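Reply to dn_fold:

You asked what the input looked like. This is it:
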Amino acid sequence: MKALSSLPLDDVVDRVFNAHSRPIIKTVAFNLIGSALLSAMNFIKYQRTVGHATAEPTQIGLIAPENAHKLSRNALVVNTFQDVFSSRHKDRGSECSKLSPVESLCFTRAVYRIALFADVFPGRYTCFIDDDETEEEAEIHHFRAP
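and this is what came back:
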């Protein structure tokens, strides 16, 4: 690795990245996630603020390095989900996604919105109706906090 650090190109790349790191990170995130970047950022921002995010979509703005890392990890998971969905519902013979760009965008946005919904409304508020329980009894049971 010492050989790479002695190259003059390494210093040039380092200076350019330090001078323009925020637009570079934003561009790389857009290339990785695509047009669903706004939905992905809303999901990341909600996790960071622990429930104090606004319900309205926000502008993408600046992406912090820790958020960029979370975005890249989430993008890998979403792409895997997309490949599985595509192989099950679109083309069973293919291991990679065969969704059109529009279908891919809709799928990716939906995954991030479902993930955000799951964070906003966690599963601890769900209750199951027993077979011998009426809906009214279930509602009463549901509103009794443990």
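The chain is about 65% helix and 0% strand.
Hope that clears it up.
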